[in-house]
Amino acid sequence: MTDSQKEIVSRIEDKYKAIDQNPDVHLEGLVWANPITYWDYILPDALLGLQVQRTTQPDEMVFIMYHQINELLFKMILWEINQVSNSAEVSAPFFTEKLRRISRYFDMLSSSFDIMGDGMEKEQYMKFRNTLTPASGFQSAQYRLIEFASTELINLIDYRFRATIDRNTPYEHAYEHLYWQAAGKDHATGKKNTLIRNFEKRYKAEFLIQMEGYNTTNLWTKFKQLPESVKNDADLIKAMRHYDYTVNVSWVMAHYNAAGKYLGNAEATGGSDWRKYMHPKYQRRIFFPELWSKDELENWGNNV
Fold this sequence. Notes:
Layout: H1 3-17, H2 23-32, H3 38-42, H4 44-47, H5 60-85, H6 92-111, H7 113-117, H8 122-128, H9 141-150, H10 171-175, H11 194-213, H12 219-224, H13 228-231, H14 234-263, H15 274-278, H16 280-283, H17 294-298
């Protein structure tokens, strides 16, 4: 046995002794273990078996796979955000690099809307979309978690109700006034449509837990907790602004324009007035408001 091999064995022994395991058992296990393969590691057979059409329209498969890819990218985004959220001390280079990664994922999402906007026959889409009602991309739970993980709740509240909500407001009350409730809730009567009711039945309990969990660990709060020398880092501020605009204007408008090619003035599958709900000038969703000028805030989402 070479010195290098002896060192490796010693490190293996130290690793398993540290967790009260017998190193010999684990070493012997390597003798019988199968070599790893691409298909065992990436599991393409399982992944490629997750596309199930509801209609006979071929382009429905494009629609399904596109949205599944979105969900995988959302998971990558949350993975990066949580590394910042769970770090006790965050340096400017670390924070900046994570934001750049996240923005690249959203840049990819924004540019990929051509797959839907130009990659499906409108006639086919208008047929299979009727089988999707009342489901909607609105019901992506991961996307809502990205919002909770990115900013303080007040910045996700419908701007009409922000004056009535502060950090002492119960999470349940804040939840009922999130900006996206406007897609399916009549605030005058409190009545919600099927889109919202189904969504909440599946995810509301988890959302309330995550809202509280991210209350002090979201990206905006983490940024504000940094020392002044770190907060003033030019690269970090640039990355924060880029992420904010990319998610809340560029990506939203790419989605908005792709939907417009197919829907025209028709309702979304969930029944919402999607043009008014989706447009950033109506949503007024801004993750990092203090990093924008008064003029930029007042004209958010205009002229796009």
